[in-house]
Design a protein that fits this description.
The protein folds into two domains: 158 residues, Alpha-Beta Plaits (2-Layer Sandwich), CATH 3.30.70; 108 residues, Tumour Suppressor Smad4 (Sandwich). It is built from six helices and 21 strands. A hairpin with a 5-residue loop joins strand 17 and strand 18. Strands 1, 2, 3, 4, 5, 6, 7 and 8 form an eight-stranded mixed β-sheet that branches. 22% of the residues lie in helices and 44% in strands. With 286 residues, it is α+β, with helices and mostly antiparallel strands.
């Protein structure tokens, strides 16, 4: 057994591509994406183990190298509206017959499965060993129960948005792009800028009041920090977040980063839910 940071990197959007182009052309384009992912992984010092469908299993001797590879992949301008999401976990691995096994492999795969397009999810040991600059890009998601692990795993998220709501470097100094979030619930509308916060819930003193039985009195909040729109769920039953045409993601008592446009449904999956819509853009209009 040896210690390593395992990274599982997955392609989002391949199913849509197969439906649009057919198996042969779509497979050729996905193969080209996987080849480019291998280049980025190896350039960061990683070892590619294998490709499994639309994902690549790799490992690194340090979490910083894994982050560099994952960050490069989620920022790559992929064709055909494809995107990458990734999960990383540090721990013991067993190498056998050109493959790797162990708890770190299983946990990294489960984190990759939870990550949204353009998001990196790292477990606590991966995150804690990052350099200060890399660690500062992450926000704490919370302790998540993962299949196969007795105790919840502390998880941290790093995400990039399609609307450049990130820190940009200019003249050697870091400046935050000013962004504006437009929030709607039925015929009511709100706007949110840097440093702003909107509380959401059934209580009358909330900024966004949603009088529905499935909504908690203090259900959640929206805030913009460092150019990123965050939704925090505080509720008993949870929320369901969808960005663009991506899949629904259940969020319960944790924060998640939002990008582009989408919807937040207040309540547990499968219920008749109150739905907020959001759109994130830049104040300079670009």
């Amino acid at each position: 057994m040896s210690l390593a940071c395992v990274l599982v990197s997955d392609v989002t959007g391949s199913t849509r591509l197969y439906e649009a182009l057919g198996s042969g052309p779509a497979l050729a384009r996905i193969d080209a994406v996987l080849m480019r992912m291998r280049v980025l992984i190896e350039a960061a010092g990683g070892h590619c183990v294998k490709a499994r469908g639309d994902d690549i299993l790799s490992f690194f001797d340090h979490p910083d190298r894994a982050f560099q590879a994952a960050w490069a992949m989620i920022n790559e301008p992929w064709p055909d509206n494809l995107a990458i999401h990734a999960g990383g976990y540090f721990g013991d691995i067993l190498s056998h017959a050109d493959d790797i096994y162990g708890n770190a492999v299983n946990t990294a795969a489960r984190l990759a499965g939870l990550a949204k397009p353009g998001e990196i999810l790292f477990g606590d040991h991966c995150h804690d060993d990052l350099s200060a600059d890399h660690r500062a890009r992450f926000v704490a998601v919370g302790a998540l129960p993962l299949r196969g692990k007795e105790a919840p795993t502390a998880v941290f998220s790093c995400s990039v948005t399609s609307l450049a709501a990130q820190t940009v470097v200019s003249g050697g100094a870091q400046d935050t792009v000013a962004v504006l979030a437009a929030i709607s619930l039925g015929t009511r509308h709100w706007q949110l800028v840097e440093g702003g916060r909107l509380s959401i819930g059934r209580a009358e003193d909330c900024d966004i009041v949603a009088a529905h039985p499935s909504v908690s009195r203090d259900h959640g909040s929206l805030a913009i920090r460092s150019g990123q729109l965050e939704y925090s769920d505080h509720s008993t039953v949870g929320s369901v977040v969808r960005m663009g045409d991506g899949p629904d993601m259940a969020v319960h008592r944790r924060r998640t980063l939002l990008s582009g446009n989408g919807a937040i449904r207040l309540g547990a999956p499968g219920e008749d839910l109150t739905e907020l819509s959001f759109t994130l853009g830049r104040l300079d209009g670009r």
